[in-house]
Design brief:
158 residues; alpha+beta; seven-stranded antiparallel beta sheet; three-stranded antiparallel beta sheet; 10 strands; 37% strand; elongated
């Protein structure tokens, strides 16, 4: 269920269970303050599917979905933002660490929290990657192992 346009306030209460909009906004991934019209179309839970593979370019090996190099597919979006990539990168350039990245159209700051492989991970915005990055080696290992087995579909939720 998502917040419907029109009666935004009552629809927001139905989606979040919160009567104070200053509490309901963050439950819908909005920072305070915000315009109530921005609540329309949001949900407390989103899900997107990644059908990934593995491949590389001169800077590293990628496991997951990366539209920049034509790797894998995605269905769904992140609160209306196009998902450009969700992958683990093992760099071939000295001095870089292995990271898992969520690249969104229009991403500029902050952090996002996702449930992947049954665990919750925080991804912080990193301008060097142009997206949200998590350095947890267990997540990177799970991504690498999963996508080396072929083209599985991974469901990711908030």
């Amino acid at each position: 269920m998502t917040v419907a346009a029109g009666w935004v306030g009552s629809s927001t209460v139905g989606e979040t269970g919160q009567r104070w909009m200053s509490v309901a906004g963050p439950a819908l991934q909005l920072g305070v303050p915000f315009w109530m019209s921005t609540l329309s179309g949001r949900s407390t839970s989103i899900s997107f599917n990644i059908t990934g593979a593995y491949g590389g370019d001169p800077t590293g090996l990628y496991y997951g979905f990366n539209s920049a190099i034509g790797l894998g597919f995605v269905s769904g979006n992140y609160y209306g933002r196009q998902i450009i990539g969700f992958y683990t990168k093992i760099p071939t350039v000295n001095g870089q660490q292995t990271v898992t990245c969520l690249i969104l159209a229009g991403a500029m700051s902050g952090s996002v929290s996702l449930v992947v492989f049954g665990g919750r991970y925080q991804f912080d915005y990193n301008p060097a990657y142009g997206g949200y990055v998590n350095g947890d080696i267990n997540l990177a290992t799970n991504m690498t192992t999963t996508f080396m087995q072929g083209m599985p579909t991974l469901t990711i939720t908030t």
